[in-house]
Prior knowledge:
With 592 residues, chain B is an all-alpha fold.
Amino acid sequence: MTTTLIFMAVLMIVVAWWLLRQTAGTEPWQESAMGAITGGHGGRSFIQVDRKLGLFVFLAVATSLFSLFISAYMMRMELGDWRPLKDPSLLWWNTGALVLSSVAMQWARNNNKHEQLSRLRYAVLLAGVFAVAFMFGQWQAWKQLNALGLFAYTNPAYAFFYLMTGLHALHLMGGLVVWCLAAVKLLRGVELSKVNLSIELCAVYWHFLLLIWIILFGLLLST
Amino acid sequence: MAIVTHDADEYVAPAAIPEMELYHPKTWLGRYVFSQDAKVIAIQYACTAIAIGLVALVMSLLIRVQLGWPGAFDFIDPSAYIQLVTMHGMIMVVYLLTALFLGGFGNYLIPLMVGARDMVFPYLNMLSFWVYFIAVLVLVASFFVPGGSSGAGWTLYPPQAILPGTPGSDGGIILMLVSLALFIVGFTMGGLNYVVTVLQARTRGMTLMRMPLTIWGIFMATVLALLAFPALFVSAIMMLLDKIIGTSFFMPAIISMGEQLDYSGGSPILFQHLFWFFGHPEVYIVALPAFGIVSDLLSIHARKNIFGYRMMVWAIIIIGALSFIVWAHHMYVSGMNPYFGFFFATTTLIIAVPTAIKVYNWVLTLWRGNIRLNVPMLFAIGFIFTFVNGGLTGLFLGNVTIDLPLSDTMFVVAHFHMVMAVSPVLVVFGAIYHWYPKMTGRMLDDTLGKFHFWVTFLGTYAIYYPMHYLGFLGVPRRYYALEGTNFIPESAASLNEFISIAAIVVGAVQLVFIYNLFISYYRGKEAGDNPWEATTLEWQTADTPPQHGNFGEQLPLVYRWAYDYGVPGATQDYIPQNVPPSKASSGVDNAE
Amino acid sequence: MIFAIALILLVIGSVAFHFFSPWYLTPLASDWSTIDDTINITFWITGAVFVAVNLFMAWCVVKFRYKKNTRSHYQPENKKLELWLTGLTALGVAAMLAPGLYVWADFVNPPEDADILEVVGKQWQWSYRFPGDDGVLGTVDTRHTTAANPLGINPNDPNGQDDIIVATGDLHIPIDRPVKMLLRSQDVLHDFAVAEFRVKMDLVPGIVTYLWLTPTVLGTYDVLCEELCGIGHYKMRSQVVVDTQKGYSAWLKTHPTYAQTVAGTGPASNIGLSLVEKGRRLSQSSGCVACHSIDGSAGVGPTWLGLYGKTETLADGSTVVVDEAYLKESIVSPNVSIVQGYAPIMPPGNFTDEEIEALIAYTKEGVGSGS
Ligand code: HEM
Ligand SMILES: [Cu+2]
Ligand SMILES: [Cu+2]
């Protein structure tokens, strides 16, 4: 559980630090705390809510999920019957595709002005194509292992491999749904301001999934 | 002790806050079924949770009948018995209390108490309820598959959960795991809402440290749930794979019923670590909202500020954080490395300190207060009593040595019912008596309420206090019958009978409560906008019950914390949060 | 006022119940009095807090009840008071934790010279194994488990040949000798618990766990399984007899070594017994009695009392008269005809014809016809 605990500890320290900054020294019953009504927390209204925060909270949940899997992986690894995994070399190519996809997303995010529209469309499409290529590659890797007679029940290492890649792909699929909606809007020529947020969120999510994949891949390689 | 003197220019005129676009449903279906209004969703959550909770209540009575009068009902055979125990426990913990506190009270109270029009992601919020609803349906479906529902205990420990010696080891356990996974997905959708709403949709002036403790409790519980439920999700998925495709995550080499199975090498203890990594925070997911709500009930009805507000907030945060490093206190005798016992006993007992501080502050809130013993207050004080009792027995079980004789006995059952069944449920009742007037515009009947309180409070104590002593005696839990156990004296059977009678009485009196809910809806006394003379924003709405959008034309502006009761120099013994300083002392009663 | 009185009465009642009720820890039969001491320390501290907090609350409820024209005392916090309370609580907690950890250290470190024995659990019966003359337990593996080798002892391990096997029945341990029990399960989680000994520990398939104690009082004590292990959990019983050294040695001699069971010789061999008695022994050693009662009480499976000759209703609604053919079918392929109301969970019996005959004879004549 060390991995999970480290993650939790970091998260809790961040939360506590942030809360401390918000709360230290205030004596809420003092009317002088009134000042806060103008400064500090600006009293955002409903419409201005930063959806990015929603995404970040979700990423924290997903991180918790993956770190728990990694913890379980490491604990299971210590038991006697663990046999290391033969990683299909295809995974390197897949990793490449995912990196490109992420880069393309970032590119899209940086080209969100009206005059860059064609570049934007191009980048968004590219990101999607690479993401799909990644998923396809992962599927091929599954098939390769299957062909070798390495099923989930063969050995816990393979079970984890299928499980973690599957879960990662599911997350990416969720991202692709949002990507799809954004891409359709873009192609239809909807006002840019309505798509920009989606693209921004997608980009953050893509980088997150890339990071998770690199960690998972590193784990699979090194054990 | 601030004397309220303020210049007029120190408060902000209702600034032109850019108004939101609320989603306005056009059809009946959109308004009442697939509603995106947090208040409607809250009621949907609450009704579903209470309905399934009543099923679990009936189950507990059946369990009690078997324990009090063994063999009285033919249909309760050994396998039905552990199925009842399992489903009762799981429903109560997850599908009733978690859903009710977060989905029910969270949805209703967060927007109202922080001064928001609605949750920030209303559509997600609506989905959250429906996914929860499907999870409940899947759970209920597990009663009807061949073999029946799972009988693995609510902890669902493998290997027995998926092996044939346990009832429901085919369809039952699969549906249970699927239902849990759905619940978690649904909860995550809701949880995102609660967190982001608290962080971003507060009205102007509602700083974090001006939030009522109810919101703090629900907020922190949601954070815990968001981080802890993935552990249950992970273990559920891995167990499903073990069951369905034969992986060996949790399954070692096993001879089941004389046959060698295909599993090898897995670790049942790995499951327990994952399960309790969720399971312990789960206790606080139920407890923290109760802590928060009870703080507000005490303060409002004692007409006194909550004692040590800042300590209370920090206690909630510290308890939340610590609750992630105590999980293995459920596993002292599980066969894990026994040296872990030192660490986890220490962390567990440390957590007792912030918890005790909360208790002291509740009691000190009563001290030098001006206590109105309204029905919600009765429940709140009842809560303190049972919680003190349950919290103290936690010090027995948390102390690794004492857990040796007591784990897996009725002492454990008594302890966790005291802390996480009776105590939170008393708060739930108190909260319903407290907020029902806001939700419906009418008061719940007082006499019925008092009757309900006394029978529930005394009855549950009569159930669980003696039960601890059965545990000392060594009576094990999850036992269908005790026949032929020499060290248990005959008299234990009469004690069991007594407990069962108390349980039946407590169960029956809940009908009075349900009756009260219905009858008061039509005949209850008109409540008015603020029957308890409370300061928090939900009592300052333009309409009761609040309309869609909560606050009419203008969102309230917040000028003070939630606990201005008995402020010296003020015209009234309470000052609502949205009363500007100049008006608090100058004879104007109402918020603008 | 009523509320305050109720609170006070509850406090008094709780304390009185603690001191006067007949239900409390069973008389201790091992040297774990330190555990009882820890419980007592905890009781004093928590009891004091319980009484103090609740009485204070009762007093508040009376003293500060609502009066129309008064106001509560305005005091948002009191740092000094809060610090004091925190400090005192921390002190109390430390006073409980310290003895707890101290005793736990004792528990996790069994003495070097403790006797060793193995407890094996399976659904839903207990077996035991002693290391024999060489003092070493032979290795085991689930793959070796058969009806003839129920504990799965490795036949090629010389250390295992002299291991003494107690397939069913009581366990005897000598008084005043520390004993370390190694715990092992063949199927699911179980838990070896004896109330009078105070200690307990789970049996986990795949690993070996342990507990230790020194029995101090002669007598017979119930062994219970205290980790849910399926339908027959509550029936998973055994007894442990704390015996004199002499009695213990004599008892041990009545059990066969592994080598003897393989060879079919040894003290508990069946040679010369009546068919019914053979059946009785078999029904115990094969674990039948975990699910089938012989006194008519309800169980995981139908009772054997009065079974022979009775008419059973099967799950599909048909009826059948219990005769020898039906009994044989039920033993060999138990899941073909399931009696109404029971789950198809009985393992098929792997018996020789002679053994089946013995079992049938026992059900027929040994158990009795009921009523
Ligand atoms: C009238 C109210 C209730 C009664 C009479 C009652 C009674 C019981 C009984 C007799 C058991 C079985 C104990 C055993 O043999 O192991 C049990 C188990 C349990 N109850 Fe309750 N209960 C009630 C309410 C609740 C509530 C509100 C919760 C919510 C936290 C709850 C949570 C549990 C849990 C988690 C278990 C353990 C299930 C297991 O062992 O797998 N109960 N209850
Ligand atoms: Cu816990
Ligand atoms: Cu058991």
